[in-house]
Specification:
This protein is of the alpha/beta class and 299 residues long. It is 42% helix and 22% strand. The protein has one domain: Vaccinia Virus protein VP39 (Rossmann fold), CATH 3.40.50.150.
């Protein structure tokens, strides 16, 4: 117990000294995992046109100006282009922005359309330079926790046309059950092995109520906010950990330790104890997330 308490003291010191993994370091891990992250994204959101209510675009006056914020590898951008084409809508333009050049390169190669512009720029810096009431609709897939929630909502509201739409999907608190406590336990027991600390919850919204409250405070009307969950199961704890590392679900976590492989057996052992489902006879992990739709009032 004393050793663990001393370990927490070491972690607190790192927090005070701002020895924390940055968003850039975490994004760098996503860039390294482009292929496997793409598979994770497809598993989590098989039908983005349904999850993000693309059909509501048909009710908006043209020409449509759409922002895909933190577009990543262009999954939502491509789905938007395909959706609009399927409904014979040609009077539109999509701006897709992301802070990682590797993502932009991948998205540009995945989406072939002269109605899409890809911009490499940090998200908040991009928003702050945009003229108010620029966009008919804004989409954000999985990136919300990487931005200060209240400021980014206010920027989105500022940039939307009256009656404009904001659609997003975001992981929420409770996702990856047990994983944060497992890593905190390993860190506290091995303080000298810790390079930087990382908040694995990464500013996740607590629930739909909290997210809707943030939207209202920014001047947006909640139209829909629903919670969802996906479970993934594996035959061994080692497979579960490998999936977490290679899918991007725990992007950046290897950088917590000076030598991650040295502590892999201890992490795996704890996963084996805490993530085993007796009912299923397999090792399981959950992804809990929110799909939400908001609208800017007409006045």
């Amino acid at each position: 117990m004393l050793k663990k308490l001393m370990g927490y003291g070491h972690l607190l010191k790192k927090y005070v000294n701002a020895e924390i993994l940055t968003s850039e370091e975490i994004t760098g891990e996503y860039s390294r995992l482009i292929d496997s992250y793409t598979k994770w994204n497809q598993a989590m959101m098989k039908n983005p046109e349904i999850a993000l209510d693309f059909s509501r675009l048909l009710d908006l006056p043209g020409p449509l100006k759409i922002l895909d914020f933190a577009c990543g590898m262009g999954a939502i951008t491509k789905a938007l282009v395909d959706f609009l084409k399927s409904h014979n809508i040609e009077d539109y333009h999509i701006t897709a922005v992301d802070g990682a050049q590797q993502f932009i390169n991948h998205a540009r190669s995945a989406v072939s359309s002269n109605r899409v512009d890809f911009i490499h720029q940090e998200g908040m810096a991009f928003l702050e330079k945009q003229t108010e009431m620029t966009y008919s609709a804004i989409f954000c897939g999985w990136a919300l926790p990487y931005f200060p929630r209240t400021p980014v909502f206010r920027q989105w509201a500022r940039l939307l046309h009256p009656q404009g739409l904001l659609a997003l999907v975001s992981n929420r608190q409770g996702t990856l059950k047990h994983i944060e406590s497992i890593f905190l336990d390993v860190m506290s027991r091995n303080p000298k092995e810790v390079n930087k600390i990382m908040n694995t919850a990464r500013n996740l919204p607590k629930n739909t109520h909290q997210l809707s409250k943030t939207a209202r405070s920014a001047g947006l009307i909640p139209l829909k906010a629903t919670s969802h969950s996906r479970s993934f199961s594996f035959t061994t704890a080692e497979e579960l950990l490998d999936w977490l590392l290679e899918s991007g679900a725990l992007a950046g976590v290897k950088k917590i330790f000076y030598d991650f492989e040295k502590l892999r057996p201890e992490i795996t052992e704890k996963i084996a104890k805490q993530c085993y489902s007796i009912i299923q006879g397999r090792f399981e992990i959950n992804h809990d997330f929110i799909c939400a739709l908001f609208q800017k009032p007409s006045h």
